[in-house]
Write a structure and sequence with these properties.
Elements (H helix, E strand, L loop, with lengths): L1 H19 L5 H65 L1
Length: 91
């Protein structure tokens, strides 16, 4: 009976090992993630560059808007001051 147990265990181990071996080379599986990682890094860098360009454009637009607003305020203040001086002179 012990011979049958040993043969049964040996047969199960052999079948188990052969079932695990599917014939694919492990190097194929290793290179695919490396390619995916490299393309992922490229797309991350590309997205980062695009985001930086967008931020720079927004900052430039905000700066231009601020400059225009300051000029408008300055012009308005000059007009108000001129009107106030004219009103004082008329009285």
């Amino acid at each position: 009976m012990k011979k049958y147990h040993v043969l049964l265990i040996a047969a199960m181990a052999t079948l188990g090992l052969s079932a695990c071996d599917n014939g694919d080379a492990p190097t194929d599986e290793v290179t695919a993630p490396a390619v995916d990682e490299s393309s992922t890094m490229d797309s991350v860098e590309e997205a980062s560059d695009e985001a930086m360009e967008t931020i720079e454009e927004v900052i430039d637009d905000a700066s231009d808007s601020m400059d225009e607003m300051m000029e408008d305020m300055s012009d308005s203040a000059e007009e108000d001051l001129s009107d106030a001086v004219d009103n004082m002179m008329d009285k």
